[in-house]
Amino acid sequence: MNLDKTLMYLTGGMLFFMLLGYHLPKWAIFLATVSLCYGTVVLGMILLVKSGLVSFGNGFYYCIGAYTAGTLQILFGVSEIMIMISSSIIISAIISFFVGYLLRNYRDIFFAMLSLAISMILYGLLAKSSALGSTDGFNLSPKTFLGMDLYNFQNQRYVIFALTLIIAWICASIIHLLIKSPLGKISEAIKDNELRVEYIGESVKSIIHTNYVISAILASLGGCLMGLNVGHIDPEMTYWTTSGEFVFITLLSGTGSVLAPFLGATIFETVRSFAYEYSPNTWQMVLGITMLLVIVFLPGGIWSLFNKFKK
Amino acid sequence: MTTQFIAVFFDSVVYSSWLFIIAVGLTLIFGVMKILNIAHGSLYALGAYTAAYFSGIWINLGYTPYFTFIIMIMSALLVGLTFGYIIERGILRLMYGKDEIVLVLVTYAVFLILEDFIKIVWGVNPYFLYQPYSILGSFNISELTYPNYNILLFLLASLIGIFITLFLKKTRKGKILISVIHDREISSAMGIDVEKVYLITFAIGATLGALGGALTAPMISVQPGIGAETIVLAFAVVVIGGLGSLPGAALAAILVGIVRSATVHFAPELDLFSVYLVMATVLIIKPKGLFTLPESRKI
Known about the structure:
The complex is a heterodimer of chains A (311) and B (299). Chain A is mainly α. Chain A has 13 helices and 4 strands. A two-stranded antiparallel sheet of chain A has the order 1-4. Chain A has a two-stranded antiparallel sheet with strand order 2-3. In chain A, strand 2 and strand 3 form a beta hairpin. Chain B is 74% helix and 4% strand. Chain B has 12 helices and 4 strands. In chain B, the strands form 2 sheets. A two-stranded antiparallel sheet of chain B has the order 1-4. Chain B has a two-stranded antiparallel ribbon with strand order 2-3. In chain B, helix 1 (2-33) packs parallel to helix 6 (148-170), helix 1 packs across helix 10 (226-241) and helix 3 (68-91) packs antiparallel against helix 9 (194-216). The longest helix of chain B has 32 residues, at 2-33. Chains A and B meet through helix 5, helix 10 and helix 12 of A and helix 4, helix 10 and helix 12 of B.
């Protein structure tokens, strides 16, 4: 039987962290969950980047995922986590299906800017809607998980971490299989030469549409889980600088493997948390300089270092 | 009702002028260098901060506030020329061969660096520079009062537009710029020093961005974050008008100005939304913006 190395690492890693997480201090579990959420969003961007498109608008679905969960809670009183997650997936799939028809006609800068504009449209709407808390946002407190009552549960943070871990594992495995499948290969071909792909007989636009919907679903999963983890959602999630952070992590991790986004996200989160504590006014500068260094010296991201060492 | 329409008219004139000033530098840089300069937002912020800072010092020293206008323009020039030169020579020069989208990420990184640079130099508290705004007084139209500063903004926007158009069409340097916009390789083959043209264009674009910031400083509270807010608006205007087209930027500024002013008066919750709605609509009808250069599909 041909065991896929990456899938093995993924499963092994998932089990390892699942066991390890039980013994970690609360702040470490929190950081780990945040890294997993960010990693899931960036995981979605891998297929798009492989097709040659950088999306500055993943914050849109990130926010939609979180706000779906939130509005379900405040409008309908739903507090079951699995319902929140499933509805985020469904709603973002529907929205991205329709928005994808517009975005699939654009490439390069226009794709990036149009996706940015769409995320800013949502920001404009949310920031002015006082029913949804305007720029303050509102709190999200899940109460039940598959029927179990979480409210007074001691290990609530761990349960959410474990849930995020399992979902991240499922997503990473699926994306890994997709990358190895014809969809992944054709996406890479689109980056190289679109016209040739059309001559082969494949519809470039539908493939981009598919990649876009996939990235949207993953982004909204990440958003929903982040909302559950932090307990608070606000329109800042769809501001273009949040999408910029996702782009940065994508750049940092590279597209070499599905494990890369999680590594990149962990590094990003850890550095950010400690940078905020010691020197809050230079955090963005560090981010910018690192980005320039990565672009010049490591265009394949951090994961390309692993490939260099293998050889 | 007529008061409202007059209000919308004047508001849109002011807003369009402001949009034009901040968008024109961006579209010029894109037209010549094919770089979407996200750092334009932080150049805007730098212009605002420098103007506020130096004018503040000047006024605190007790000199005449009328001179602050000159200080604002001088600080815009200072910021534009120094930072424009540093960014272009120091960073962009290393990245010229790369993909367009990689260059956008480079300018994004520069934007992040400059945002923190501003926080380090000037701190996080807001600066206020109200003197240039208030000393000009105001005028009355029916029941509305408008500050005369807005007229100044409109005059400057028109001057900038006319000046740049004349520069591009009549002077030799301007024609060289146009030829680089149309085709970089052939221009280089004809003996034009394209690198120097890039430097000059970036410096001009940066100065215009800083000028936008300096002129806006009296109207707002200068604080961290103004760069990020403004850059999205500038993008929307530039994309609507067509990247690289100056008349496009002007027309887009007018369009967005009218739509936004009308929205603010009649449906205030849709304020930001309306700008991006215009952008989405224009892009659906004309995918590359209102005025674009004809392009052949490269195989």
